[in-house]
Amino acid sequence: MSGVNDIRSTFLDYFQKNGHEIVASGPLVPRNDPTLMFTNAGMVPFKNVFTGIEKRDYVRATTAQKCVRAGGKHNDLDNVGYTARHHTFFEMMGNFSFGDYFKDVAIELAWNLVTKEFGLDPERLLVTVYHTDDEAAGHWKKIAGLPDHKIIRIPTSDNFWAMGDTGPCGPCSEIFYDHGEAIPGGPPGSPDEDGDRFIEIWNLVFMQFEQVSADRRIELPRPSIDTGMGLERVAAVLQGVHDNYEIDLFRALIRASEEATGVKAEGANHASHKVIADHLRAVSFLIADGVLPSNEGRGYVLRRIMRRAMRHAQLLGAADPLMWRLVPALVREMGQAYPELVRGQGLITETLKLEETRFRKTLARGLNLLSDATEGMEEGARLDGETAFKLYDTYGFPLDLTQDALRQRGIAVDLEGFKAAMERQKAEARANWAGSGEAATEAVWFQVKDKVGASDFLGYETEEAEGVV
Ligand code: ATP
Ligand code: MG
Ligand code: MG
Ligand code: MG
């Protein structure tokens, strides 16, 4: 059985043997890309290489890229703790061809890696292709010998990738592993509610076209390849477990959380330990890459993730701040592959300690208010927006924390009411401000605050470049 560190190096070594340059992970805060909240795919650091703006001295590369999907278009925050396969922070391993090889070689490299190097049983594998992509389907048949019923044609955008409204785009092909049985666990109402039997482990993107304008798409003279394989998902397959949170790395983190709280990861408590372990990684890597908690932008996403984990620590009955005590376990597991964790250990520890100490002052009172406000509520009920806003404004509860706290009981939050309460408070603040005599400056100040405030609590519904394989 191989641990995540071995799997990562097997992947990189394999592609290096096949002529790829091993490139270190880029940072979680994308360089020169203000449109993207966090790096959310392996191709992000190579965007300009794919569009041809930037040249490198290699045409094949391979990476294990740090990714965060906790905001914007790809937000997996709500899945964590409930599905077997989603994290907020994860590593996406990939191989890239910049105008060098294309579909046939990409498929052959992928198939050989999974079946020979990793030794997966071909019987357990199946693939999807974009419905019109006969070429890819043909390669899967010829190279992998897959029967037609295991080459599934998908007509939706899931199997067609685009960098943005214009720029490179093309069909993709995803490799799934059949775990044989479904395990329950998706959030109620989500596509994962019935559990995942087939887990997507790898996505191969064939950058075949360029979208020149809304209605014009041309064939690229030298098409490119971009792939993404989730390290934690393939580790689960290789370690014979169905749930990502059962792999060596997560077991170590969950064990640390069990020891620090004295509460076993069983029954209802299991999800809390998973959330804590997942969020510990996300917040530590974000701080190591220079993000600090704040009330806006990236810093607010960080704070939301932290506070959510802190509520789960509270649920487990932790009497003192917990998260900072788990940092050594994370550094032990991942510090060798990511030295920035070792360098940042002091800052990560202090930041977590300070934030949790502060938040605990209002957390317990906020939770009491929440339980009083929802007393006697049945499944399907809705918490009024006023209360959700009071929790946000007075007790520092990010909206998603309140939603998470109520989800197990099937209670939703009245979002319209929440927004209305927020607006009302802003209007009152404006009225109270009147009379200082600096009307012009004030108007500007409120415009800025309105803008910032709106993006803060709505979870960054801003337009963001696709940037995802
Ligand atoms: P899913 O449909 O399961 O949410 P996806 O299609 O959104 O996955 P891609 O954007 O294709 O994922 O990313 C490439 C690979 O990265 C996936 O095949 C998967 O192995 C991995 N991956 C994506 N999202 C996550 C996540 N939140 N946690 C862990 N691994 C992930
Ligand atoms: Mg997804
Ligand atoms: Mg998918
Ligand atoms: Mg995919």
Automatic annotation (TrEMBL):
<keyword id="KW-0963">Cytoplasm</keyword>
<protein>
    <recommendedName>
        <fullName>Alanine--tRNA ligase</fullName>
        <ecNumber>6.1.1.7</ecNumber>
    </recommendedName>
</protein>
<keyword id="KW-0030">Aminoacyl-tRNA synthetase</keyword>
<keyword id="KW-0479">Metal-binding</keyword>
<comment type="similarity">
    <text>Belongs to the class-II aminoacyl-tRNA synthetase family.</text>
</comment>
<feature type="domain" description="Alanyl-transfer RNA synthetases family profile">
    <location>
        <begin position="2"/>
        <end position="469"/>
    </location>
</feature>
<dbReference type="GO" id="GO:0004813">
    <property type="term" value="F:alanine-tRNA ligase activity"/>
</dbReference>
<keyword id="KW-0067">ATP-binding</keyword>
<keyword id="KW-0547">Nucleotide-binding</keyword>
<keyword id="KW-0820">tRNA-binding</keyword>
<comment type="function">
    <text>Catalyzes the attachment of alanine to tRNA(Ala) in a two-step reaction: alanine is first activated by ATP to form Ala-AMP and then transferred to the acceptor end of tRNA(Ala). Also edits incorrectly charged Ser-tRNA(Ala) and Gly-tRNA(Ala) via its editing domain.</text>
</comment>
<keyword id="KW-0648">Protein biosynthesis</keyword>
<keyword id="KW-0694">RNA-binding</keyword>
<keyword id="KW-0436">Ligase</keyword>
<keyword id="KW-0862">Zinc</keyword>
